[in-house]
Amino acid sequence: MTPSVPEAPSKEASVKEAPATVDAALADAFASEVDEAKLIRKIDLNLLPMLTILYLLSFLDRSNIGNAKLDGLTTDLNVAADNYNTALAIYFVGYVIWEVPSNIVLKRFNPRIWLPTLTLLWGITSIAQGLVSNQAGLYAVRFFLGTTEAGLFPGTIFVFSMYYPRRVRHFRIAIFFGGAAVAGAFGGALAYAIGLMDGVGGRRGWSWIFILEGCLTVAVSLSAYFIVPTWPHSATFLTEPERTYLLTRLSSDSDAADIEPFNWDGVKQALGDHAVWGYALLFHGFAFVLYSLSLFMPTIIAELGFASWQAQLMTVPPYALAAACIWIVCYASYKASIRAPFIIGAAGVSFIGYILLVSTSTAGPQYFGVHLATAGVYTGNALLLSWPAENVSSQTKRAVACALQISIGDLGAIVGVLVYRPELAGNLYRTPHGIAMAYLVFGSLVAGWLWFWLNKENKRRERVLSERGEKGLEKEEGVNDVEERRRLGDRDLRWKYQL
What we know:
The protein is mostly helical.
């Protein structure tokens, strides 16, 4: 059970943090008809359940290869130990290549069509993964699985940025990302159950893991065409007063109410913004740990001396703890209106977990270390992945920034799966674990730098505004002009960064 979703801030408490593009009088006209907290909960009900389920399935279909390995995948396909790591890396190659193009397609078209179509395609690819008969087939399927899954996460983050005010957005993204932790817990138990089908229909248990979980994804994707929302300007679940009220409130908070066509200038701005690269490098540090841990957890636990079926089931508690920590810590971050220290603290918890993994040799402390490492890195990722969605404007720039964060981040995942190679597996993976600790330190340093720079920039803008005065700013920079404001985006002096 997830904790209660925080309500939207009251109109009295809301602070204007970006230029408005819609007359605020419209919101006042509908104020008696629309309750803002109820409206946010209505958006929650229409966005969170289905999109979270899609991400749960996405993470399940990419990480179940770790469970399949314990059920004999590499032996049956004659995949050498090193080549198994290569198969894991190939997935992320496809993922990295297609994330930015996928979000550009999403910006041009409709999430109701694009996101379910991606889900359908990777579900079919997952089924095909259960039908491969050799190493080359496994390589090809893993590449196409990465290609088809690439657009879901950055696409959903962008959709959230079009519906939610910035202050309440990151908790919703945390709930969404919690689907990854739930997938880990659910996947271990499900893999154990499906593995009992070994020999049914002449197929091995690992084959059935891919086939049945892929069929589940295909079935859900077909229903998603009727449930995933379109852009708020044309969302049918909103009444006309609700839509007008929402767009008006969003226009005082960000650019979400604009109908902005795709433009290449936004792409150039994203690529030239050092903060955008900071968000990407932050995820790069955490992604190394996130994916190496999720893909190798069954193996790490099995090498503590447990049987394969025990290792499958023993992956459930660490992921369950991670899901709980995500929702609790992200709620605390929401209430405190700050995330950077929570990201650094989460990295510290994960770091302690790895200390236990590299400094102990008995199963009990090692398994406890897995719990801490998992809870810390999943919580940190849940917090950091919403940062560019809240701090980057215009829409095109934000779409590219969200995708770029995942692309650069997943280069860390490629490094991670290649580092956890058999020749470095001695002493219960102590050398790869040590490298993971270095990546956590790197991620913490980037988070600290972003915290320092964003806070410094906020103060600089406040000082400039105070010196110039509101009227002077409008006269000098034309901030009343919608096109000019759209062009400036987060570079507008009145845009306040979320820390």
